[in-house]
Amino acid sequence: MIFTRLIPFAALLLAALPAKAVDIQEVTTPGGITYWLVEEPSIPIVSLEISFMGGARLNPEGKEGLANMLTALLDEGAGDLDSVAFANTRDDLSARFGFGSGRDAVTVSAQMLVETMEPAAALLASALTAPRFDAPAVERVRAQILSGLAEDETDPQAIAGKAWSAAAFPGHPYGRPESGTTDSVSSLTAEDLRTALPSLINRANATVAIVGAVSPAQASALIDTVLEGVAEGTGFDRPWRKVAPPPGVEIIDFDVPQSTAIFGHAGLKRTDPDFIPAFVMNYILGGGSFNSRLTDEVREKRGLAYSVYAYMSVRDEAGLYLGSVQTSNEGMAESIEVIRAEWAKMAETGLTQDDLDKAKKYLTGAFPLRFDSNAKIASYLVFMQEEDLGIDYLDERNALIEAVTLEAANAAASRVLDPDALSITIVGRPEGLTATR
Description:
Elements: H1 6-16, E1 24-28, E2 34-39, E3 45-53, H2 66-73, H3 83-92, E4 96-101, E5 105-113, H4 117-129, H5 135-152, H6 156-168, H7 182-187, H8 190-200, E6 206-212, H9 216-227, E7 248-253, E8 258-266, H10 275-287, H11 293-300, E9 305-314, E10 319-328, H12 332-349, H13 353-366, H14 374-386, H15 393-402, H16 406-416, E11 423-428
Parallel strand pairs: 2-6, 7-11
Antiparallel strand pairs: 1-2, 3-5, 3-6, 4-5, 8-10, 8-11, 9-10
Helix pairs in contact: 2-8, 4-9, 10-13, 10-16, 11-12, 12-16
């Protein structure tokens, strides 16, 4: 496989973290696209990452799943090439393209060889500017999506997630299913896809990064080739919402031997001064796998669940503090009681110095492991730009973690964690629990 040669490049970068991590250049193409570039001339591979802000958030009401279906069809034929011809041409060029849609963005990932990057870039450009949406491809992809939705209808985790989001974000796109519903996906047409293309994929909302064996001039030419024919579009703001998920317990009756719960409440903006201290604190509460208090209390001491966790989720328009647990129907009530108690304990008494030291050691030591391919590095560079973290963030991130004091972590815990505000959605037939909403 050609792309196994990505590994030595990743090793070079891992060796450089967290000191001067990588040399990131900010470059503007002749066509006016500003992007971040990391040059690595030793391996003849280029990774391109583009994020178009918007994603499923732009799906019109009643057309849920539109962005998801559109991105699934971008490599199903473009320009003069039908689905098979497009795939064969891409493979002949030893290129890889990936398209995805999330709550807040449409993403494009591409890996290509330097020797064939010009025709590969032209092929990728055709997918973004002239997708065919041929009827056979549309119906095949529609069937695949509908099959996935049917599976979700029997998946307690998927059911709980959709219900929790619907309750937390009434009247907002975040409250509607990203992949759509059976009715909405069944009704989508090729014309819907063509109409949505310029709003979902446009230059005004594009964030770009390249990592690989290219000079600034070569990288700029590649990007201008890919984006030259893309709609100019209009930028839009990301209005921050004060989310207030309804507290209490919602129970969705489902005949399964194990119940699944999603729980959470409002969280923080990434730019909030308490975000990093809260991030460090969460490693001990619920983010540290077998090192977390939730795992210790729910799994290790009581044997109630195999997995329980909590994490901080930041979306373009809202911040959340979320978690999940899956356990037997008879064990769910006790699991929820223990989770509430640990939530309250952390808010009231916080971390110990030993907790803080463990969290810092893991979070700084594990950080370089995120960069085990140049594609992942390119993706992270896009994330840094979207979140306005600054071009030196790779160098500064571990120092920010190390700078968190016990006082700061505990103050963040006291501010963020609120056991009484926990909004809990349970799918199953939990014993000893009564719905309160």
